[in-house]
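Quick one: structure tokens for this chain, please?
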Amino acid sequence: MIPLLPFVAGLFAGVAAVSALRSDRARSVIDDTGTLLRSAVSDAESGVRAAAQSGLAMLRRSPTSTAGAEETAPAAPEAASPPPAAAKKSARARKSTSPPPDATATKAKPQRAPRKPKAAETEA
């Protein structure tokens, strides 16, 4: 009887949820929530687009880029996006700025103990 009790409780909860979702009030709430989610996704998409454009603009202004590439590339509208804050260097950038390790220096390998000869090798 015990295993049937959770099944029956879940069945009743499912029936109650379906009947509640079919009401007009629930449909209007679901539609409003969908509209809010669509607008939030649209805002997030425009925010990501603005961040990508400002990042590309920063790359174009970097001193390592060539002068010819800056002239041919269209300027990003910076008035629409806020100026980017000073970002911390990523781990990859920090690693790349460190001096390369000495190529001649090798890591010392631990030495193993000598092997004992097998019995077949000692008799032969």
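The chain has a mean pLDDT of 75.
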